[in-house]
Specification:
Structural class: alpha/beta
CATH topology: FAD/NAD(P)-binding domain
CATH superfamily: FAD/NAD(P)-binding domain
Bound molecules: flavin-adenine dinucleotide
Shape: globular
Largest sheet: 7 strands, mixed
Strand content: 15-25%
Order of helices and strands: EHEEHHEEHEHEEEEEHEEEEHHEEHHHH
Helix content: 25-40%
């Protein structure tokens, strides 16, 4: 089948790799003139790593990623550990694949290599899709430069501001969540030895604000994401903001958090608005479907957005191998994916309430009641996109 994918992000490349492996003819059209991811990190839990394993990326991931020992939820000022989710060996033993922290660029490069090894012409750059029309026999896609292409199946993997989504679901823009995210990364050697965090994913929780810190690139870089409730601002991953505002947002926080803020380059502080959408149950026509942030963008508070895009890619490719008509396959795909992705979106939103509680006692109680370790080990991480039952 001739498949066109709009968007060469993590979801689009994962889909291309899975579909090429099945023998489909795949072309990925990416608007950026050069391929590259934004310099930030992502966490990949077993549910997504099983797909990376399927694509032959285990050895590569082992060489570029960090394996944290645990998620540690800590109080923002005194550092009290409120809850722990074991990762490391425990995660791998329980769920059959490791938990990784990886630079987005490294993950993107790994996926791209797989795609190009299967078809060196699969990715077209500088092609911004602007118009789509569907007939009984195919889909026509027009690009900004006036060129066009046709597909038997079109997959919109074009992120939160998806153009493809407009032809499938609605033209509503995503909504601002009232929260923004600071993003900084700092060479580990800049942080005084005694204030370097352990090899964990630490989440520092405070009033209307939380900060996530973890290592990437074999521990040589530390990633910091600070999520603060703030008025609306521009949604862009590349907008720099004054260090003084970052300093202000984290005044009075624990010395381990302060050590990162105090030692970062003052002109390297990025901040962007976090947007979201209400989950939907249907996102396909007869020949067009969506995946990843194009259909179910989520707050990053469970570290699952990219993982969901990768799961989508794997399940979609498996469903397309069934002996059914294309519209039925697309229906099956969305039926399989909608409940799970909606739960991730919903629970990620709820995490803001938990992580941002002002009162310490109340926060302690809330973490105890919620028992994130039991919950995530119970339903989130055990999911296996390569083996989940496709037809009941
Ligand atoms: C602060 C933060 C931390 C996060 N941490 C994690 C984490 O730890 N773990 C995790 O799993 N997820 C995490 N996520 C979520 C994750 O980054 C996203 O869910 C993921 O990148 C979505 O991938 P995607 O391929 O669907 O979309 P995108 O990565 O947005 O890719 C879309 C691509 O489509 C291209 N495009 C857009 N429009 C067009 C067009 N018209 N024509 C052609 N190309 C087009 C874009 O240029 C882009 O390359 C985090 C997100 C944030 C904001």
């Amino acid at each position: 089948m001739k498949v066109v994918i709009i968007g060469g992000g993590i979801g689009g490349l994962a889909a291309a790799a899975c579909l090429l492996k099945q023998g489909h003819h795949v072309r990925v059209y990416e608007q950026a003139p050069e391929l590259g991811e934004i310099g930030a990190a992502v966490q990949m839990s077993a549910n997504a790593v099983k797909v990376l394993d399927h694509l032959g990326l285990r050895e590569y991931m082992e060489s570029v990623a960090v394996k944290p020992k645990a998620f540690e939820f800590r109080r923002y000022d005194d550092g009290e550990i409120l809850h722990t989710i074991p990762l490391g060996d425990s995660h791998e033993a329980q769920h059959g694949a490791p938990y990784y922290q990886v630079h987005r660029v490294d993950l993107h490069v790994g996926l791209l290599r797989v795609v190009l090894s299967l078809d060196k012409d699969a990715v077209r750059l500088g092609c911004r899709a602007v118009e789509i029309s569907e007939t009984e026999t195919g889909v026509n896609i027009k690009f900004e430069d006036g060129s066009a292409t046709q597909a038997e199946l079109l997959i919109g993997a074009d992120g939160i501001k998806s153009v493809v989504r407009k032809y499938v679901i609605d033209t509503e823009p995503p909504k601002f969540t009232g929260q923004v995210a600071w993003r900084i990364s700092i060479p580990t050697e800049r942080i005084p030895q005694e204030l370097r965090p352990d090899v964990v994913s630490s989440i520092w929780c405070g009033p209307k604000n939380h900060a996530v810190m973890y290592y990437m690139r074999s521990g040589t870089l530390l990633n910091f994401v600070g999520c603060v409730e703030r008025p609306w601002e521009e949604e862009s991953w590349t907008t720099k903001k004054p260090w003084t505002e970052l300093d202000e947002d984290y005044r009075g926080w624990h010395p381990i958090v302060r050590a990162v803020i105090d030692n970062v380059d003052h002109d390297q502080c990025y901040r962007w608005a976090l947007n979201n959408r209400e989950p939907v149950l249907e996102w396909s026509t007869k020949r067009i479907t969506l995946l990843g942030d194009a259909v179910h963008p989520t707050l990053p508070y469970m570290a699952q957005g990219a993982a969901m895009a990768i799961e989508d890619a794997a399940v979609l490719s498996r469903v397309l191998a069934l002996d059914v008509e294309l519209p039925d396959a697309l229906k099956t795909y969305q039926e399989l994916r909608a409940p799970r992705t909606a739960r991730v979106v919903r629970e990620s939103t709820e995490m803001a309430d938990l992580y941002h509680i002002s009162n310490k006692e109340e926060m302690r109680r809330a973490f105890k009641n919620r028992n994130l370790s039991e919950s995530r080990n119970g339903w989130l991480y055990p999911y296996d996109p390569m083996n989940v039952t496709l037809v009941k």
